[in-house]
Every structure is written in C-alpha cells, then in structure tokens.
Design a protein that fits this description.
single chain; 7 helices; globular; 54% helix; mainly alpha; 2 strands
Length: 178
C-alpha cells in the first residue's frame, strides 16, 4: 500500500509540476491573448486571427480599409489617407533620395501576395506599372513625393463619390474592385 500511495503521489506531483511550468509558457507566447500561432494579424469577419473572409481574396481590401482608418470611426478622412499614402511612399523610396524610380515603385508589393492566382497577380502588377507614368507629371523619369501625394489625393477625391470629404467602406470597395 505504501508503494501504491507513493506512486500515485509521485504521478500527481509530476502532473502538477508539468502544468505549473506549461501555464506561464502559454501565457508568455506573445500572442496578446489570441488563440493561434502568435502572429499579429487583423481580425476578419466571423473568425479570429485574420482568417475570416475580410482578410482573404475579395475581402482583403477591407483589411486595408481598417489599417487606413486610424481612428476606427468607419470612414477614411483626408488626413488618414494622406498619412497612409506618405508611409507607402517612404516604404517605396528604398534609397531615401526623395524620388521613386519605376524600379523602386514596382519592387514593393502591398498585401500578403500569397501567390494563389498567378494570372491575377500579373494583371495587378501590370495595372500598377501603368499608374507610374501618369504620376510623373514633370516627365523627368522619377516620381517626387509631391507627385506621389498629388496622385494619391486625386485617387482619394475620386473615391469620395458623394463628395462629403470622407471615404466610406462602400466607396472604398467600389474603387478597389477589378
């Protein structure tokens, strides 16, 4: 009986020790309380960890909307659009010379680009390339920050179809289809 109690007590102690060491490790997984693999993604509709419809395929634009809408009021203001546009410009200007070459512009691909549809990715890159030349308004072969920002402002104003000074999710989605 003594050996049986000792074995049971030993097994319980080992289980308690295992649980005691696993709990802090799980709590310190750097996942901010979310379940999953610890990656920090925006949440999509219907599922956590960015796996919902809003973060894949057709809903990916709405994930971008949430990033641009910095104050989470459900609309993109001119200031929010300008701040996002400026951050994209700074990411693209890899040599920090204040200008974007076509090579720099094309090198940065926004979004996850998971490669599920090669044909669509190629078409999107061609559309992006076609936007470069019109931004270069002085035709010097490079795009200044002022030219890049002006193109972004024009695109924002085009998206604001009701001309109320804000871009709603509906307006945003309408502009980003295709």
């Amino acid at each position: 009986m003594f050996n049986k109690i000792s074995t049971t007590t030993m097994m319980a102690a080992m289980a308690a020790a295992l649980l005691a060491t696993a709990a802090p490790a799980a709590a310190d997984d750097d996942n901010d309380g979310y379940r999953g693999n610890g990656r920090h993604w925006m949440m999509g509709w219907g599922q956590n960890r960015g796996n919902g419809r809003m973060m894949r395929g057709e809903g990916q634009q709405m994930g971008r909307f949430a990033i641009i809408d910095a104050n989470d009021d459900g609309v993109i203001s001119p200031d929010e659009a300008a701040a996002q546009r400026e951050s994209v410009y700074l990411a693209m200007d890899s040599d920090d010379d204040g200008f974007l070459t076509e090579e720099e512009y094309m090198a940065v691909r926004m979004g996850p680009q998971e490669g599920r549809n090669e044909e669509r990715m190629k078409a999107r890159q061609e559309q992006k390339k076609a936007r470069y030349a019109p931004m270069d308004t002085d035709k010097d072969g490079k795009v200044s920050k002022a030219e890049f920002m002006a193109a972004g402002k024009a695109r924002y104003e085009e998206a604001d179809t009701d001309k109320d000074g804000e871009v709603t999710p509906w307006e945003f989605r309408s502009q980003h289809r295709g």
